[in-house]
Amino acid sequence: MPSLDRYRADWPEVELDLSSGFNFAPLPALRSGELDLVITANPKNLPGISYVPLFSYESVLAVSNHHALASKDFIDPEDMADQTLICYPVDRDMLDVFVQFLDPAEIEPATIRHAELTVMMMQLVASGRGVCALPNWALEEYSSRDYVTAVSMSDAGVWCTLYAAVRSDQADSKYMMDFLDTARETSAATLVGVKQTDRQGDPLKAPEDCL
Asked: Domain spanning 2-55+160-201: which superfamily?
């Protein structure tokens, strides 16, 4: 929303509208012209679609403050074998917890439970009904208030990149390039725990990493 607010002030003549829904296929809608931009962490190699990295983030596991996993420095895939995993009702190949964490280790959670709203996920996690994986920047609102505990998945963490998908013939238009620049700059300034990326989606090194 901070990105949209800033962009609206700079481009008042551009109409802005949001579409969401778990039964909605956004990338085909982008190709057909129903949408002009899609935010996704799961880029697909589709003709006529370009992806611009916005930032990198860590996908972390949310557990209740009294959960046995809350005291661990990081979660191993095997720790999930007896857990109820709460996730959005989307294909598992769109969920980082499966693609980058559980599937490579050939581990399945004991139970999978679906919830459409993040706030409902947090209610279920806080009450000990299961665990869920969310981006660190989305979970920070709850973990900073000690509502739930955030734990890294693996010692290196599960790092992902969020992209803006646009039609290739619009990627260089001034209004689109300005929105992408605004989104990158505003996200870096307002979201906790994200890292800026280069044009290939690789995290930019901090000055101290270059020493």
From this structure: Periplasmic binding protein-like II (3.40.190.10)
CATH of span 56-158: 3.40.190.10
Q: Which of these, 104, 115, 114, lies nearest to 76 by C-alpha position?
A: 104
Q: Indicate the residue type of 25.
A: A
Per domain, the residue ranges of the chain are: 2-55+160-201, 56-158
pLDDT tens digits along 94-131:
899 999 999 999 999 999 999 999 999 999 999 999 99
CB atoms within 10 A of CB 127: 9
Question: Could you read off the pLDDT of 131-150 as tens digits, one per residue?
Answer: 999 999 999 999 999 999 99
